[in-house]
Input
Amino acid sequence: MIKVLKGTKDILPQEVDGWHLLEKNALDIFIRYGYKEIRTPIIEVTELFSRGVGDTTDIVNKEMYTFEKSDRSITLRPENTAGVVRSFIENGMARQSAPVKLWYKGPMFRYERPQAGRQRQFHQVGVEMFGIKEPTADAEAILLAVNYLKSLGLNDLEVEINSLGCPKCREEYKKRIKEVLKPEFDNLCEDCQTRYEKNPLRLLDCKVETCQNIFSKSEIQEVIKSDFLCEECAEHYKNLKKYLEKLNIKYVENKLLVRGLDYYNRTVFEIKSNNLGSQNAVCGGGRYDSLVKQLGGEDTPAIGWAMGMERLYSLMQTVEPEKLDGYIVSNSSAEAFMLAEELRNQGLTVEFDLQSKKFTKQLEKASKVADYAIILGEDEIKAGKVSVKNLSTSEQTTIDRCDVKKIIRS
Output
């Protein structure tokens, strides 16, 4: 027997209604905020991610699915911000009036150890906003994420924020981080030793216990928690917090929050759910003001976030499968077939028995899958009528065939 690949999963019919709710709420809520859906290819040139996501990240170094085709290096997308930025540049969206607001949903691919809520093929829903440098964009992005999560019934949330500053003020901070960690260099994990030279801020994102213990030392914590932001970045961060307070969004500041991708600057944030274990982040994002220019476009401020849909699905209450409007019960397959098509053409969801089972078996099936049983016996066929039975109240009435929709949708 051929089985599904490790780290991938079938989304079965009994689960799909929950996925539809994730997608429907995204469409409904994002539209209110002025976002338009974009659909980018799941394959891109590898350079897009090595330049955009960063060659010091685990994603680029360890987790990408990359292959050669016609002398081109192709990669299955491990995330979608880089692809959306590529499309923004390639399709001249910078000419549109700011802000340009885009949202997406779809599969991503990373080669990593499968675990609860994390797979090798997984799905994300996310948003990207281009053209606004003010902290109003940061506040709206966080508000949008919180409201989307609340629409799914997720209220036990914690918002964590931090500011990574701009390249100018961050350089001094990186220097201080390296100085204070230099005596501990040999005790850092192999990845952190590499990051020490290439991107010292990424050290703070390490989840290895020995590194976490090093970072918790008082002299290192003093540097981590020091105020390194320039005047402009400090003002931006102060105003973001002011907006969040005005919007009644409770937050905590986390100086260790740097996110796992190289393109972030200034605001970074995560939203966590206390109903998950150690891997409790359901949303992550931040500002990436240099990425558009880095990938060949004009200098354009931007901010965005993404959520893993498998994790969202695991936190949602069970969504009951939607029932059919009606199930036709009849001993005449031909008449049932014709009536089913009449009702489907009127917009009703209808099935009938394709196997000509006994009347009682058909009624039993109707009670499980539909709101109404539409009974089409010999008497009803002769009279051009049907009997409609409400399966929740057991009320039954005989009506003209043309009135079935009125009864079911009343």
Summary: The CA atoms of residues 13 and 408 lie 25 Å apart. The chain has a mean pLDDT of 90. The first helix runs from residue 13 to 32. The radius of gyration is 27 Å.
